[in-house]
Specification:
Strand 12 and strand 13 form a beta hairpin. Helix 14 packs parallel to helix 15 and helix 15 packs parallel to helix 16. With 469 residues, the chain is α/β, with parallel strands linked by helices. The two termini are 41 Å apart. The structure holds beta-D-fucopyranose (FCB). The site of beta-D-fucopyranose has 12 residues, from loops.
Length: 469
């Protein structure tokens, strides 16, 4: 592993300047509402499951909440200035559903929506394209009180919400994402309970929530399409290349089960119109009601797939989430502060896999990033996060290889624009390319941010210098 020296920084900056990503291509950064906005009650906002979940002690490592977070609800103009300084072409953010519909149903709370109108207009005036995500985990608590993602009603409420928002923002937003990472919010929220709403109902919970989330997505797509002319509509999945821990039959089978649950359950449903047979056979008794016609709704044609990638998964036979019965194996190697193995090859592997097996029209890397423990600001106000800079360069390098193998990747969003509330890790594991001092909300572009800006500048310069094909 590299030491934190001026030479390393010089070497990485040189790599950044020579990295070439084939174009047209957009460089952006991503955030999510609950992780940055704060202002949990402003302008009539309703309670979300994350507002409720973080009130308990012992569920977030530092017992923190998103009540203030980056205070982005008030500081968004400064955050747009930062994006401009970084030379970003796009910004991926999410809407807090309870700002728009405080109880998850009924008419729009205009004051809540106005916040997003101001933000979107500010982005557009700055030449930064808004990539809007409708749902990044902060379900209105009122819907959770009626069953949350266990209930088909939530799928219909989501479709109504998507309809209202896409009508209201029809002339402002072209890039629409329905859901962020259904695997994570359904299984961590309803199977293992690490995330809100904290239910520990095992595979039955994960499967039931997953079906209703996919149904919500499928119902929302035609609504958005009808409301926004020329919209690009997609969904964001967190995908992993899965590798068996050994060639023992039991480990190979466990890796296959995990792969089917995390990747193929979602990909097959969205792109092939059916759930994987292996999952249906394995989990038969645990499935929610799947009605005739659900598969067709879920497989509504998409314009792009967003892929969040952080690591690879090495799996052995084990006892987690029966009947999936796997166990994650962490071989010696490099790990981030959230214990994700650093394995940049996985971005090329997953891109080629998705392209070959499912052929989405376009793919965005909608998140990719590296967590550290709390970072030190040097006396002259810098943050020398060389490991994060190296992580982004290495991943972009492997992503560009996939593109040269024919994968239609259209953009990359660094996770994340600025340090924020990292769910169960609270503020203990920053991922930002911009540092936030939570004592006074000072933002400082880190070394990784400068490196990322150099890559974005260099690639767009070389792309615009190229004659049109
Ligand atoms: C993803 C989430 C995002 C952030 C990163 C580190 O699973 O979508 O909100 O927490 O992980």
């Amino acid at each position: 592993m590299m030491s934190n020296t001026a030479e390393d920084m010089e070497r990485l900056m040189a790599r950044a300047r020579s990295l070439h990503v084939p174009g047209p291509f957009v460089f952006g950064a991503a955030t999510a509402a609950y992780q940055i906005e704060g202002a949990p009650k402003a302008d009539g906002k309703g309670e979300s499951i994350w507002d409720r979940f973080t009130r308990q002690t012992g569920v977030i490592v530092d017992d923190s909440t998103g009540d203030v977070a980056c205070d982005h609800y008030r500081r968004w103009p400064e955050d747009i200035r930062l994006m401009r300084e970084l030379g970003l072409g796009a910004y991926r953010f999410s809407l807090a559903w309870p700002r728009i519909q405080p109880d998850g149903a009924g008419k729009i709370n205009a004051a809540g929506l106005d916040f997003y109108k101001r933000l979107i207009d500010g982005l557009t005036e700055s030449g930064i394209e808004p990539f809007l995500t409708l749902y990044h985990w902060d379900l209105p608590q009122a819907l959770q009180d009626r069953g949350g993602w266990y209930s088909r009603e939530t799928s219909h409420r989501f479709a109504d919400y998507a309809d209202l928002v896409s009508r209201a923002l029809t002339d402002r937003v072209q890039q629409w994402t329905t859901l962020n990472e259904p695997w994570t919010f359904c299984w961590s929220g309803y199977a293992t309970g690490e995330d809100a709403p904290g239910l520990k109902d095992g595979a039955k919970g994960g499967l039931s929530a997953s079906h209703h989330a996919l149904l919500a997505h499928g119902l929302a797509v035609p609504a958005i399409r009808a409301n926004v002319e020329g919209a690009d509509i997609g969904i964001v999945l967190d995908l992993n290349t899965v590798i068996p821990a050994s060639d023992k039959a039991a480990d190979v089978a466990a890796a296959g089960r995990f792969e089917a649950a995390q990747n193929r359950w979602f990909l097959d449903a969205l792109f092939k119109g059916r759930y994987p047979e292996t999952m249906l056979d394995l989990c038969g008794g645990m499935l929610p009601e799947i009605r005739a016609g659900d598969s067709e709704i879920i497989a509504a044609p998409l314009d792009y797939l967003g892929v969040n990638i952080y690591r690879r998964s090495i799996m052995a036979a084990g006892s987690e989430l029966p009947p999936l019965n796997f166990e994650r194996v962490n071989p010696p190697g490099r790990y981030s502060a959230v214990k994700y193995e650093v394995w940049p090859e996985s971005i090329e592997d997953i891109l080629v896999y998705v392209h070959e097996q499912y052929g989405p029209k376009a793919i965005y890397i909608s998140e990719n990033g590296f967590a550290t423990t709390a970072e030190r600001v040097t006396p002259d106000g810098a943050i020398h996060d060389v490991l994060r800079a190296e992580y982004h360069i290495d991943h972009l390098d492997y992503m560009a290889r996939a593109m040269r193998r024919g994968v239609p990747v259209k953009g990359y969003f660094a996770w994340t624009l600025m340090d924020n509330f990292e769910w169960a890790y609270g503020y203990s594991t920053p991922f930002g390319i911009v540092h936030v001092d939570f004592a006074d909300q000072t933002r400082r572009i880190k070394f990784s941010g400068h490196v990322y800006a150099a890559i974005a500048r260099n690639s767009s310069a070389s792309q615009s210098a190229k004659p049109a094909a």
